[in-house]
Amino acid sequence: MMKPALTVILLISCSLIILLFTSSFGAAVSAAASKVPAIIVFGDSSVDSGNNNQISTLLKSNFRPYGRDFYGGRPTGRFSNGRIPPDFVSEKFGLKPYVPAFLDPWYNVTDFATGVCFASAGTGFDNATSNVLNVIPLWKQVEYYKIYQEALRANIGDTKSEYIIKEALYLISLGTNDFLENYYSFPSTRSRYTLEQYQDFLIDIAERFIKQIYDLGARKMSLTGLPPMGCLPLERATNLVDGKGGGCMNGYNEVALRFNAKLDGLVNRMNEEMEGIRVVFSDPYGVFLQMIRNPSSFGFEVSSVACCATGMFEMGYLCDELNPFTCRDANKYVFWDSFHPTQQTSRIIVEYLIQNSLHQFL
Question: What is the DSSP letter of 230?
Fold first, then answer.
């Protein structure tokens, strides 16, 4: 029969072994979860978490009902009733459940160590697109990124900074405004380029941008394709066939598909030509179109118009908190305003992208 003292010693020893194993396993899981230490974002309103709040532009959303479903019901400058895609990506990678805007005075470089957003609503690849509403052009976002790098090095040192810069996941999402705000809105742009030439012009800018941030240390990137932009409520409203919005503008959707094919080709070329780079093409087009065509299969009730106001034309300041037509439950709607998806739509799109492209970085 085993002596009581020996039994106690064995129990303690077993407990220590289990504790050590658990700690080691936990550390291993934590290390695996931190393969991507930060989410760094460039782009337009699809990913802007509030930079436009701090610049002189009419394109803002730092007021309710925007943000009514965000943490604390706070409008942050996100063009949504709540969170946007980078926030969900950050959460999926085990980081914070939101990515702060670089120009937001609420945050500092310590907050930005796990994620930062340089995006600006209304911008595009083309500098002329950003001039339309006086927003932050893509080249300026890169300049902010350089400032961020300097601040990061000063705050946490070169070694940790270089690790974050190299291992971070860079989300790049823009292009819709180049077509809807620029090419199709200004005859001067159409007189300079055929549609094919303009797409190639944008692809050339995208390629130079990728090379630029690559030279600054970026290695893991996700280049996001265009949505079915002919099905945005604002575009459907101009294709009016009844009092609640018309059908999708198929011509615009075809342009989005062709441009996405060019982006995909660019991604393949970059991966072949650039040493150590890892770029994926994240394509939201298909799943987004499925939600629009068959909303009930995703738990939605309405996809032809948006939640805010009449849901046909309103965006930004026209999306007013006092408008009596704004829906009560945004989760029933695919679109939040006439141009942007609801928080629930963004959540579904990110889940799809995680499974089909971003899982490569997990």
Answer: G
